[in-house]
Amino acid sequence: MLGVIVVYAKEFRRGAVGRMVSEARPETRKKRATIWEVARFAGVSHQTVSRYLRNQDSVRPATREKIDKAVEELDYRPNLVARSMRTNRSNRIAIVLPALTNFVPVPVLRGASQVAREAGYSMDVMGLEGDAARRAAEVVALLDGQQVDGVLSLTPLSEAVIAAAGGRPVLVYGEYDDNLHARGQFADGAPAGDIVRHLAELGHRRFLHVAGSPDWASALNRRAVYEETVAALGLESYGVHEGDWSVSSGYLAAQELPADSGVTAVLAANDFVAMGVIRGFQDRGMDVPGDVSVFGWDNEQFTQYFRPSISTVGFDREALGRRAMASLLALVAGEPQSTSSPSTPFELLSRGSSGPAPH
User: Fold this and answer.
1) 130 three-state secondary structure
2) Spatial distance between the Cα atoms of 319 and 326, rounded to a whole number of angstroms
3) What span, in angstroms and rounded, lies between the C-alpha atoms of 141 and 247?
């Protein structure tokens, strides 16, 4: 079964995820600006504006700046229907997930939609249910029926699917598995080492790790790097509490930690676990970070407003979504792919829940 959510790219900019957006919305407004008016405002030919709309990098920077200003001043929006009839393209991009579940990678979709919108495309988010063969057939059907100009897949697709696409634009985004469990850059455990080193510099010597679910590569990688770094620096680990990404698993870990454990720093698998750890210690009358420091992961929005604010690892998922969509649109346009290796967009954010080790 193919589930479809039609989501215009501009809606993600507003944060309206999963909302059905009407394609035909009557509005009373002034007449839409034309490409010729943009050209006159910018002092260039309409062919130059057309080339700018297809690929901004093909226009010289000074000219691009003039057209940028004209587009903004005139509030120009490409006529997607007319362009579709002229180019035999749908001006739509499909992003496919393994299934429509409660988990939707909103930051990735938001970043991808921003790039799609700027290029004049709308974006459909689809859940492909069934086995690999069924999902493959659905992807090929989308392209055969010219329903979309390209497919960005957040679920793995076999080489057979890519071959069946016949060279048409299909890009597999390799950061999730069939269950939308993080892998690739998303699962990189390297920041766990940075956290341990940072806390060691603050005088901490005895640590506890509250892990995520062991069926996630990200949880295994964070645990492995934590243990390796503690050993490499000659520090002590009280152990690893087997968690499941939940607030309750963090709370239980803090409640069950013996009073004489000597632990002064806790690395939580994510921010929800960290919140549970902090509350668990507070309910025991312990001060965070006075008695024990706590570090989370993911930079969830609530971490800035919790008390204390939660130290965490920031990860720019929107940047990866933008990069993935840009790569797909390059395929659609028949342009070469970038060969540069992007840096891992992690950032350690030290906040109120971590500080020097107690004396």
Assistant:
1) coil
2) 11
3) 42
| Cβ-contact 261, 292 below 8 angstroms | no
Q: Which domains does the chain have, with CATH numbers?
A: 2-30+91-172 (3.40.50.2300), 33-76 (1.10.260.40), 185-315 (3.40.50.2300)
Q: How far apart are CA 56 and CA 52, in angstroms?
A: 4
Which tokens sit at 27?
């509005």
Cite the DSSP H helix spans in 14-105.
35-42, 46-54, 61-74, 80-87
Residues 140, 163 contacting (CB under 8 angstroms): no
Residue 45, C-beta contacts closer than 8 angstroms, at least 6 positions apart: 39
Cβ–Cβ < 8 Å for 212, 270 = yes
Mean pLDDT per segment of 10 residues, for the chain of length 359 residues? 39 39 41 80 83 68 86 72 46 74 71 84 72 65 69 70 64 59 64 94 96 86 93 95 93 96 95 96 96 93 93 85 84 68 73 93
DSSP 342: P
Peptide bond into 258 cis (omega under 30): no
Q: Where are the beta strands (DSSP E) in the chain?
A: 2-7, 92-97, 122-128, 150-153, 170-172, 206-210, 236-241, 265-268, 293-295, 312-315, 346-349
